[in-house]
Amino acid sequence: MTDIFDDLKAEYEQLDAVLTALTPAQWSHPSAAEGWTVSDVVLHLTQSEEAVAASVAGHDVAVGGEAVDAVADALVAAQRDTTPADLLARWRAAAFATPDALRAQPKGTRLSWVAIPLSPATLATTRLAEHWAHAYDITAPLGIPYPDTERLRHIAWLGHRTLPYAFDVEGVEGGPVYCELTSPDGDLWHFGDPTAPSTVTGPAADFCRVGAHRLAAADSALKATGPHGLQALAVLRNYAL
Questions:
Q1: What is the pLDDT of residues 169-192, one digit of tens each?
Q2: Any idea where the Mycothiol-dependent maleylpyruvate isomerase metal-binding domain is (predicted)?
């Protein structure tokens, strides 16, 4: 895969182009994230990027289990009076500092994060995944294009890599799953052991959207086989919680 830190910056740049062009009415428009406006979504992204900086500085940013969503809602509610201009400047300052800050971490570093400590590269991947998913929450209700890119490979890797953890968290019996996914450019991406008894095949974009809980597996073009294929799609997540 291409460098995750470069791709994270590129994802920020793609979203920045969208945010720069928003009108005041669009900032206050309901997003696809239930209960949040577009401004609320950007505020959440800003706060989570500031948490990355805090983690890099050595602070504990773990939240714990089921409290994550409640904490995120409370943080957004506490700072909703921020103007779009100030919010955009604050998001840019936090987001565009993240790639270099994570890249500069010494080999073997584990950084505090919401549920478990993560390597800088894995934390960068979760940031890419979250910004990509929330970009959908912003653009879809506004009818703004947000094309899928080859950067989805990082997100698909994360979803597959965390399947054992996802099975465990959901209390679902799991096993090895091989994924063969078609990239936005038509290439085939392979994750896992080809001899695994269970497989998932189909568009990488659908795989990532199912993992981000933006698309139901039954409504996707993904196909699952074997004893654990369907269970993998049921627990799939593109985030390390």
A1: 899 989 999 999 999 999 999 999
A2: 9-138
Angle, vertex CA 73, rays to CA 70 and CA 78, nearest 5: 125
Mean pLDDT of 147-151: 97
- The whole-angstrom separation of Cα 241 and Cα 234 is 15
Using CA atoms, how far apart are residues 83 and 21, in angstroms rounded to an integer? Answer: 15
Homologous superfamily (CATH) for 152-235: SCP2 sterol-binding domain (3.30.1050.10)
Mean pLDDT of 69-92: 94
Q: Token pair of 185, please?
A: 């450019």
Choose which CATH entry (1.10.150.130, 1.20.120.680, 1.20.120.450, 3.40.640.10) describes domain 4-142: 1.20.120.450
4-142 matches 152-235 in fold = no
pLDDT category at 115 given cuts 50, 70, 90 is: confident
Residue 192, φ and ψ in degrees, nearest 5: 95, -175
**Identity of the residue numbered 79:** Q
Token reading at 150 = 């080859």
Gyration radius of the chain over CA positions: 18
Quote the pTM value: 0.94
Residue 67 predicted with pLDDT over 80: no
